[in-house]
Amino acid sequence: MTSLNFAIIGCGGITLQNHLPGLALCPDSKVVALCDTDPATLERARQQTGVTVTSTRYEEIVRRDEVHAVIIATPNFTHAPIALAAIAHGKHVLCEKPLALNAADAQAMADAADHAGVRHMTAFTYRFVPAMRYLRDLVQRGDLGQPYHYRSCRLQDWGTRNLGWRQVKQLAGTGELGDMLSHRIDFAHLLVGPMKRLVANTRNLTPVRGGAPNDTEDWVGLLAEFQCGASGVLESSKLASGRNESWRSLDSVEINGSERSFVFITGQWDRLQTGKAGGPGLETLPVPRACWTWPGSPRDPSLGDPLVSFRYDQAWEFVDAIRNQRPCVPTFHDGARAQAVMDAAVRSAETKQWVDLRARS
Ligand SMILES: NC(=O)c1ccc[n+]([C@@H]2O[C@H](COP(=O)([O-])OP(=O)(O)OC[C@H]3O[C@@H](n4cnc5c(N)ncnc54)[C@H](O)[C@@H]3O)[C@@H](O)[C@H]2O)c1
User: Which single residue of 7, 102, 145, 295 could bond 259 by disulfide (Cβ 3.0 to 4.6 Å)?
Assistant: First the structure.
């Protein structure tokens, strides 16, 4: 088997937490080049990985012949130009979410990747939580019946600290909407299908964070009608004081259908709650062991913290899709679909109106 060579563009938080450990588990796959505009971050990544090909300019990295695939883990405003440059050089691309600053750019990325015949993947990492994967399987085989309601709630306590590029609209696009709600919009598409129209509101309760201006929202609420007739309520906040952060805080999805309800909570990666229509209430449904890792993943689910290590399966999915020349799960098209909902939410919050979503193929 020939070795797959990866370049990492952006060597900050998520690269250290997800991408490097994920790739390290994939056989015959290695990181051969690193890029970061911050020389100190680049040097730390070089020392940590031993990778000697480094640059502060992505243009120098994406054109290298030995690089087969690129992982983009930079601030949101750079995703589209970096991805388009990598695609133009025939590289497969895994790009962090939100895919771009708007749906037009995200769609252009998806179209360019399709046209070039390269693999493309959006890092909707929470699809890889075993309980979410199992829930998707159960809904697909019809256990839910006709979908009635989709509900997601992401509540974290980020206080008023400085968030760097994340609190600058020009660099991040949006705040909580792109940062956290984008994953839950993707879940909604996965479980219920496309939305028909929505109305949304956003709030910025911290115009100054850590002494610097913040022009992004801390809270977003979205009410949706799906094409299938189901309704959706999605809420996400950085200001749920006392709830802590990350997987220690609340991240829940509830879906109610004609046959059953299911409840998914990221922190409870190995179980769902479910109840039958007319039944006595919710009970625990364990996630079968076969779903504890992504199909084919070499990861041992008993090693490490399972609430961290499920994220490593994302790299495996990218590698496996490249090797088997099949579409990644999820693709840039999934990223663009979520981006269209984000654009509509921004427009709705600005105009105080319902916004229709264009039917997409
Ligand atoms: N999938 C997930 O669960 C998840 C989790 C966290 C972050 N993210 C996403 O990952 C991306 C990065 O987030 P982060 O938390 O790692 O941010 P970060 O600030 O920790 O790291 C970003 C790095 O990119 C570098 N950079 C900036 N511009 C660059 C450029 N043009 N070329 C090369 N390097 C550049 C910065 O110097 C920094 O080191 C964001 O899009 C974010 O939304 C996704």
Answer: 145
